[in-house]
Design goal:
With about 260 residues, chain A is α/β, with parallel strands linked by helices. Chain A contains 10 helices and 7 strands. In chain A, helix 1 packs parallel to helix 7 and helix 5 crosses helix 7.
Chain lengths: ~260, ~260
């Protein structure tokens, strides 16, 4: 098991969000990536909104705990580091960070005990310059210039994901460990078994090419990184194929003998 | 301007997607991150679905070009590298990659000219083991174990984002360059201007603390990294404040003189 996260995760501040579905979707990805402090500034359709609960798919706690504010200034008053997420070029003389750089800065702040937040604008208009000016840096998701329109909850997801993978970079701890690759002795046994059967079958033809054909086979099979169980299975496959061929040959020989042929 | 991306982006294969809204949302994030090849295996409600176009917010081309298949095998037949996105532990002996590792592998493949794809399961059930077994590796988004339920389009977003930022790691090229920080001579001019006015105002008290007070002020202001324009503005601020104070003092002195006080 991994140890729990002890750094305080950043707040997510949604300024003038329009669609309750997006608030719920934002809560869902916050829960996916260890965030819980949701703050809403002037949600267009009021608060609470049942549709947010529906679209959160069970991530209710950021919604239950969400606080509503009249101004961005009030929503961020207790924070020491606030990053403004915006896709639009600004005249504001703030540093522009990628989500990854922003996450690193948030983690640095959190490690120092700072409370921090990520500020997102509404679906249609994004953030006003006056709101951006309250922040210490801009976060811009590097989207394709051919299609810049990033969904609000997707923007939250990418920033939350980058926060999280800096803390929990691996797959979930409950994932089963991959079986180790087989020892090379087992692989050599597999190779020699196969090559012996192929010799018996007259596969290596012409004989002067045998060495390079063997080498190519060993490289191809070796690249798969078989584990012990797979090596045993493959040796069973070779045996089944070669015995099957043996039975076919025996049957042919019997038929030929019956017909008086050699 | 950055140069265009020349590597072929991976296909996105959605196996048995249920909600047209999620197909549209997936198309939208594909467009955000330079992907365009969308393949649908047995979409529950048939295809095409107008709601997908609505939720794509204008990213119509992945939807217009989407191909529908009856089986995963058919959908991936022309691909050389397919990664299965799944959050559920599997017995399958495939390597498990993070989205970042997966993106690196996809870029390696694309750089070698391979066609590649990312396979996603439906909203409710995810991928079957038999579908995972068609793939060369598993991709697992490292979500918080306390809330694993990741939206389909969010999963597409994170994988597509990781593909893209490996190619286009910076903010969009159209973002304005930050003005350079002012030369230190300009900063020194600002400091000395401020300190002279503070001396005149009797701010540095007691005098033996002046050196450390000046040092602390310079450190605090220096950390902001003011550009030339900001330095000019701040010098205007200092002038305005000190002249304003001068006017107030002159007014007070005039009033005191009229009252016969020193």
């Amino acid at each position: 098991m991994r140890t729990g996260v002890t750094m305080k995760a950043p707040a997510v501040i949604l300024n003038a969000p329009q669609l309750a579905e997006n608030i719920g979707a934002a809560a869902r990805v916050m829960a996916n990536f260890g965030l819980g402090d949701l703050r809403l500034v002037n949600p267009r359709d009021g608060w609470p909104q049942p549709r947010a609960w529906t679209s959160s798919s069970g991530a209710h706690w950021p919604l239950e705990g969400a606080r509503v504010f009249a101004r961005v200034e009030d929503a961020i008053a207790d924070l020491r580091l606030v990053l403004a997420t915006t896709a639009r070029p600004r005249e504001t003389a703030l540093p522009v960070l990628t989500p990854r750089q922003a996450a690193a800065r948030l983690r640095d702040g959190a490690a120092a005990g700072w409370s921090a937040g990520l500020l997102f604008g509404g679906e249609r208009a994004g953030l006003e310059s006056a709101d951006v000016a309250l922040c210490q840096a801009i976060v811009t998701v590097p989207v394709d210039v051919k299609f810049r329109s990033l969904n609000l909850a997707q923007a939250v997801a990418l920033c939350a994901y980058e926060w999280w993978v800096g803390i929990e970079p691996g797959p979930p701890a409950s994932f089963p460990e991959l079986p180790a690759p087989a020892e090379q002795a087992a692989m050599l046994g597999l190779h020699e078994h196969l090559e012996a059967e192929l010799d018996a079958a007259g596969f290596f033809h012409p004989p002067e090419k045998r060495a390079s054909m063997v080498r190519n086979l060993r490289v191809a099979l070796g690249r798969a990184g078989f584990n012990e169980q797979e090596v045993r299975t493959l040796r069973g496959v070779i045996t089944a194929l070669s015995e099957g061929r043996g039975r076919v040959l025996a049957k042919l020989a019997a038929r030929n003998a019956a017909a008086g042929e050699p």
